[in-house]
Every structure is written in structure tokens, then in C-alpha cells.
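Schema walkthrough. Field components (list of strings):
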Amino acid sequence: MDFNFDYIIVGAGSAGCVLANRLSHDENHSVLLIESGGWDNNPWIHIPLGYGKHFDNPKVNWMYHSEPEQATGGRKIFQPRGKVVGGSSSINGLVYIRGQKQDFDLWDPERRFGWDYNSILPYFKKSEKNVDIQDQYHGSDGELSVSSPKDLHPLATSFVKAGLNMGYPLNRDFNGVTQEGFGHLQMTIKNGLRSSSSTAFLRAAKKRKNLKIYTNVLISKVLFKNKDAIGVSGVRNGKEINFYANNEVILCAGSFNSPKILQLSGIGPKDILDEFNIENISVLEGVGKNLQDHYNGRIVYKTSNQYTLNAVMKNKFKSIREGLKYIFYRRGFLNMGSSVSAGFIKSKQLLSRPDLHISLILFSGDKAGTKLHPWSGFSIIVRLLRPKSVGSLRIRSIDPADQPQIFMNYFNHKDDRKLLVQAIKITRKIMKSDPISNDIIEEHSPGNEIQSDAQIEQFLATKGGISYHPVGTCKMGVEDDCVVDYNLNVYGVKNLRVVDASIMPNITSGNTNAPVIMIAEKAADIILGKT
Ligand SMILES: Cc1cc2nc3c(=O)[nH]c(=O)nc-3n(C[C@H](O)[C@H](O)[C@H](O)COP(=O)(O)OP(=O)(O)OC[C@H]3O[C@@H](n4cnc5c(N)ncnc54)[C@H](O)[C@@H]3O)c2cc1C
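Field assembly_structure (string):
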């Protein structure tokens, strides 16, 4: 084992793998990528439908839970996160959505720091290999494969047509000129296999002599000499182990674990550092604050269509046929991500951009990760694109193996409660229109008896789900609550950056994997002085 490197990257997830690739491109730089999980050898990681198998598999998943909160019925909400090379990009639902132009323009309102939409679009394109769309919004030479669905499921076609019949526009590319409208989703899938950050960015790079990847090492803290980060300390096989960085340490441990490592290292809110007797290296009140995610409501329908995942899994003949379809043609359910089609719509016409996201899932169960219903069913997930409820997290103890206390604060803002109720009502109207209405036998959940605003709100509070998009806990910017500056340097210390979903000042309007990969692409250029 080597212990001295130019760059040390903590966390081989969506962001960490990109950085490891880009920083080791120049063979004069030695790079260490450290991951607490193991290699992504499990074949179900690579089969798109396999995400269901890892949703709660402790071998590849941190299996965190948020604290019980009144606004969500006192439930402890399960928070899966990838603990494996590839991080959450190895276990996610494979949907490729970048967000809206205005999201990034708000990150950098004066367009001075290179994070506005026009400045970051080249980074989305740089990493992308879109096999279906070639235009000014898409890249075709990157490492991350993005494809459009090969087969359009009849329910997907009906869902999109229903949206159009309700007057919403057709959108052939949610990552192009506009996100608004109904259409089919792009996926990080290549020839029937998941394109994770690991397969896309590490597979070739790991052969480089100047890149070392150490797995099964849990990093506990950053090491400092005065205010300069000089390395990291971790545990491997029960033994403490230190690694030293000549240039810098880069935390890519994700929105729950990057702020946790900072707090354990003496960077965080004063009350937390004092409570646990941690030496104050830099008091930053924002570490762990500004936590955002897309809380959602799920409407479940019983359908006459007998080609849902529920119907296939229940029937031996159909399952075998589905397996063969995948093995021989890379088609069918095994080649699908979590959702196939979506509508990005405005709750009110006068809005300048969509604020709601409704997506079609070709299966149903009582909640995410539980058994499928024994009848043929499908689900519609209804989300606010930019919720106002904001949470926080703090370390639970000084044991690095302990999960932090996570206060998601979901569904707590009155505007979120009102808008999500309205979103359910809008979605129900869409689902009552042709042709999707012809496929529906009945609304199983919430069900016809749940009609008033108060009933819907209660249903959402007690049964609402989440989107697995935590962001924002090491906010980028210049305000007092920011943790990193626009070059992603941690305030108050030297040679330490954070590069992952935690730096987002505001959650993007959609799924978060693509924006995290973009953040890492841009960070690599910043670190290498190319921007
Ligand atoms: C179940 C699920 C479904 C999702 N579906 C989608 C989707 O369909 N589309 C989409 O765009 N997004 C989706 N997301 C979200 C998306 O995958 C994440 O936003 C993104 O992967 C986050 O990237 P990251 O680099 O910030 O963190 P991660 O990818 O989570 O990487 C963090 C890495 O750091 C490692 N690490 C953490 N702590 C330590 C430590 N102390 N020492 C060493 N290593 C450490 C972790 O093991 C992990 O590998 C989903 C996420 C989940 C969990």
C-alpha cells in the first residue's frame, strides 16, 4: 500500500469516479481514490432492473434512516445510499435528467463564477455519450452512456397521450431545449447494461499506474497541520490507517457522509463540535444544513394491462420469456430503469417553468422496496420539483461507523403541503383522460374514499415516499451559511474541497445523478486550473 499521493479523493461514487478519471489523466499526478464499500462485482448491479435487488442490500448500501418527524407521521424514513464502487450511481434508478436551465442560473445569479447554465452545459456534454440524440444539447464522445428506451410500453404510450390530450406539450428530449411536457425518459444504459460512474469513468482509468483505488476503507476524518489539510485517517480491517496528500484532499462522500466527515474533522457548527469535544478547525454553521430532497406521493392503479412487472413476476412463463428477451435481445423489463415516462408540468399556467414532476412506474407495491401487489398494477409518482422544506443533519457520536442523525423535515413547509395536494388532484385528472383511463380498473391507493384536501394531505403525510435525491449539506456560495466557495474549497482551511451532491445550493428540478457528474467534471477543470 502507498500512503502518499498528490490528490486524495474520498468516496468512489457518482462524483468521485469522474474526478479520479480526470485527475489521473495526466500521469504526473498521483491519485488515490478511497471507497468504504467493495468493488461492483455483483452482476445485478449491472442489469438495469437489478436496482430493486440493492435497494436494501446492506452489502452495497449504507441503509441509513432519517429521524421520525411529525410532518411525515412519525415515520423513520429509509434512506438508501450506494456503498460500493460507483456509489449511488451503482444502485440508482438509471433515469438521466439534468434539471432546468434556471436551476443553474440561480446557483450563480450574477453569472460570475461559471455555474450558470451556459457555463455548465459543456460539462454535461463532455461526460455524455448519447447514442440516440445528436444536437447542440448532447455529447456523443463522453464516457457516460445515455440512451432512449428501445421499447415503448403500451402504458407509457397511453400515459404520454393522456398528457397531450389534457393540453400539455409533447417533449421528445427532457434534457434539451426545454424540460416542459410529456415524454419518455432517457436512461444511463448501454447495450442493456447500467452505465454507472464506475463502469463509465473507472473501467479504463483503473489501469493507469498513477491511480490507486483502495476499497473497504472507512475514512473517519481529514488530517490537518494548522489549517492545512494534509491527508485523511481511516479504518481498514479494524486497523487505523493514514494517507497523506501533497496537493489536496477532495471529499466526494455524498450528501450524508461528506458533512459527517467534516464535522468529525472539526469543521461544522460550533454547538456540534463543542458537544462532542472536537477541536474546532473551522466553525462553519452551514455544515449539514440546507438538506433537500424530493418528497413524493404515489398513486397506485389496478390495470387491465397484463404486461406490468407485477403480472410478469407472478407468472412463470412470462418471467422466463422476459429473461430470454433480455439475454438474447437486451430488451424488456430487465433493460428498464425505475421509471419510463414522465410529465414535467406547471401547476399554474402563469408560471415561467414546470414545478411538478409526475412519472410512470410499471409496477406497484405498498411502498418502495416492498413486495409487488399480486394483481397487475402500476404507479404514478408525483413530486414537487423544488420543495421548500429544508432539513439538516448532525453526527450522532464521534464513532465514524455511526450513521448521522438525519432530520429531513419532509413535507413540513405549508406551501409544499398545499402544492403536493394540488399535484395529486392534477394527476388524477390526467389519469382520468384517454387513453390511459381505458387501462385502469381502479385507483387502489389513495383510493376513491380519499378526496378532500385534508384527506389527501393526511395520506401524503403518512404514506408519502422519497426520491433518494438528498443534496445541499455543504452548500456552495458566498453567503454566511455556505460551506464551500465557487471553486469548491472549504471555507476557513486550505487544500480541502467537497465535490458531490452536497454542494448544490438548491436542489435541481429532477433526478440528481447527471448534475452530480457535471459538478465533478467542472471541479476537475477547476482543480487542474483549466477554467
Ligand atoms: C435508490 C436510489 C435511486 C436513485 N435513482 C436515481 C435516478 O434514477 N436518477 C438519478 O439521476 N439519480 C438517482 N438517484 C440519486 C443519485 O444516484 C445521487 O444523487 C448521486 O449518485 C449522488 O452522487 P454523490 O457522488 O454525491 O454520492 P454517492 O454516489 O452516493 O457517492 C458517495 C460515495 O462515497 C462513499 N463514502 C461515503 N462515506 C465514506 C467514507 N467515510 N469513507 C470512504 N468512502 C465513503 C460511498 O460509499 C459512496 O460510494 C438515486 C439514488 C438512490 C440511492
